[in-house]
Amino acid sequence: MLIPFQELRKTCAARIRMLHTQGHDVTGLEENLAAVPDSYDALLAYGKSIIDVPMRPDFPYHEPNDLGGIRLERPAIRQDVIPGFINEMELRDKIYGGVYGRMLGCILGKPFEMNMTLADIRGYLEGTGDWPLSDFAPAYSPTQKEPLRRDCMESTRGHVTHVQADDDLNYLVLGLKVLEQFGPGFRTQDMAYLWKEHIPYGWNWGPEHTRYCLMSGLWWDHNNRLPEGKEWDDFAALFNDGEELIGAMIRGDAFGLVNPGRPAAAAEMAWRDGRLTHAKTGLYAEMWVAAALSAAFHEQDPVKAVQAGIAQIPANSRYAACMTEALDWALHDRDWLKTYDRINAKWGYLGFNGTFNESATVVNSLVNGVDSRGHVDFESIICRQVMQGWDCDSAGATAGCLAGVMAGFRNIPDIWLSPIRDTFHTTVAGERKTRISALSERMYQMSRIVRAAVPAEASEPELQAQGDSNNFTIKV
């Protein structure tokens, strides 16, 4: 089915607004769009013309998309490998904690995934005496403005018997599958291939969905390969007005989980995945998640994990500025509600799927999720994350994965583990209903393979070579 002309126009107009936010000179672009006739050829030509738009000379940030440029823009002082020893038993426990934590944070927030704000969620929960949140969402509240999502009943209190299928969790599985099938040297095009082979049409949104549809039309050359180099970058940008949304951020977990203590390697894998759909802020967010998760294996202080993630992205970027500011607020306020008010005042206008506001709330939850003894409080982190609203299941999953790694599986309270019965559902082809413990074990075993294939002492050129090759060689 052909996309209506008006939809293509809306996408181009939204992309122009996004380009302006990114610092591009968009002078005259809207007027040019208005003059384009209702013709697919004409609109396609216009869409291609706004891929490479010059930057404004007064834009104060420098935000490259290529991996080499990103690395050059990172802080000079950083840790690409976190020093310290962690034995295999503890590492395995932390990987299990990350997988279970992601799933629990996701289904905790899933019923509220209705673009609800903190005020909306608070009003709902106060009606049942459940504010602050400390359990799965009640399915009904006498003070509700509208019912929670009916398709999420199985993620509400008293109805949880498993982890419900969700697009956020599909990407965790896909991240593992690309490593299992193509090895640590997987390419962006390999991930695209797995999307087409394993994700059903309609189970992705935003730029993920538009890239999915465009890939259908391009499928592919005689070797089943997508474009390479600049041609690939142009394809990823064509009619893409969502490259700075949260969609890549929710895909970085697997790459952090298989690279314990190696944030640079984790961020590099996340870059290969993220560039499938996202750029600049959207791309950096996935790299931050992967790097912060990698650091969390060694850093029991959430602040240090957050900082390790920031150190793997361009220092003079809007995203780094956002994350640094959110971290400063959380450390200064030591009150998650007060920090949320600051976040909402500055970035709340972005609403559902906004990368700045969603990422800042994750920082807020982590910093304020440490108990009086300095231990990470898993329950506090996932509940506070969900209570902050917006994309509750996506941000809940990210915060849950980070909290699960830092706390470890052994420290996730049974009140959360018992109801899900070690079972999750997914729409990823070939997976279906399976055990969370089995997926966690696969993730742990893949971490062993990755660590053997790319030793911690590997240089950045060696890491780049892994990313540029499909040759999967285990170094021993």
UniProtKB/TrEMBL annotation:
SUPFAM superfamilies on file: ADP-ribosylglycohydrolase (SSF101478)
This protein's name: ADP-ribosylglycohydrolase family protein
Lineage: superkingdom: Bacteria
Organism: Paenibacillus gansuensis
